[in-house]
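call fold(seq) -> C-alpha cells
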Amino acid sequence: MLESFLHYLTYEKRFSAHTVVAYENDVKQFYEVLNLEDHMLADLTHRDIRGYLVELVDMNHENTTINRKLSSLKTFFKFLKREEKIMHNPMVKIQGLKQKKMLPQFVPENQLWDKSTFDEYDDPFLNLRDELILELFYQTGIRLSELINLKSNQYQSTQIKVIGKRNKERIIPVASPLKMLIDEYLLLRLEKEVDMDFLINGNKGKKLESKFVYSKVNYYLSKVTNLKKRSPHVLRHTFATHMLNNGASLESIKSILGHTDLTATQVYTHNSFKQIKNIYKSAHPRGGD
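ret:
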C-alpha cells in the first residue's frame, strides 16, 4: 500500500524527493505506533487517529510537527479512498492542533555580508563560489533545491529560469551586481576541471549537495549575524522581507518566490510592520511619538 502511495506522490503529484521521504517517514511511524498492517486500514476510525495524536503528544512532539504528520496522513487516506481501499476516511473529523504563529526570521539589512566575509580559501575561485551561493539566495529568493539543481543553461545574462515545486517554471530577473558575480565565476571556472552542466559546483567540481550548501550558509551567516536560525530558507525570507520593505508589491514577490497562493507571501507583511511604522512617523505631520 505504501509503495503505491509513494508512486502516486512522485509521479502524479510530482512532489520532490525530499517531500516524498517526509511523507514516507510519517506514514511508517503511523503504522509502527498503532501496530498496523495494510488489511487493518479499512477498519480505522477517527477515534484511532485521535489515539495516535495522544501518542505523538506523549512523545513530546511540537504541535507544528504533529500537524505536519496529520497532513501526511490526510493525503494518505484520501489516496486510499480514491483507490477504493477504504470505504470511510478516518481523517474527516480530525483537526490540527493550535500552534504559535512563527514569523519568518530574516537578516537585517545592516547585518549583511560584504566581500571580505568570504576569505576561507587561498583559491579566489572557491571564495567567489561561496559568495555566489549566498548572493543567489539573497538576490533571487530561490529555494535550496532550486539552487543545487540550477543548470548553466538556465542562466541567460539578465535572468534565470528556475524549475520549482512540481516542475513549475518561473523567470527571475538578474540585477547587474549579481550578473557580474556570475560572469566572473563562470570565467574563472573555465580554467578548472569541473562539471559545466550545473551553474555552481561543489569542492570536487561536481554537483552541489544540500548539506554542503546548508553548512556554507550557516557558517557565513554566523560571521555576520546573531540569528539562531541560519539556513538557506532564512535568506529566502530575507529576500522577501527586504523587497517588501523597499516598496515591492506582494504580487511581484509572490511571482518571484513561486508561491501559488498570496497568503503564503502575506506572512512577510508582519515583518515589515515595524518598517511601515517608521515610515509613518517620519512622513505624517502628526506621526511623531
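The beta strands are 159-163, 169-173.
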